[in-house]
Amino acid sequence: MASQSQGIQQLLQAEKRAAEKVADARKRKARRLKQAKEEAQMEVEQYRREREQEFQNKQQAAMGSQGNLSAEVEQATWRQVQGMQSSQQRNRERVLAQLLGMVCNVRPQVHPNYRIAA
Fold it and tell me: Where is this region: Disordered (predicted)?
């Protein structure tokens, strides 16, 4: 009986050691999975930063030429507006005099298409 009891004790100890090894293996596996997940996340983030930088460079290259074009268009528009305003200031008095002359100097006439009923 003592040898059976001793055999059972050995089996229980072996089972306990096996359970500890399995638990340790699970912990190592969980650590490896967590580490792999973190590394993958860092790679994804690095790839995203690289692609974002590449996009910004391309956008800057494209927008740089458009930015200059935009400034040129803005400058041309400003010059045109200034020209129109100066033209308006120069011709204001002449146009007002012309309009007042047309409105105030009415010459009554019979329209050429008017027919007198006979």
Answer: 51-71
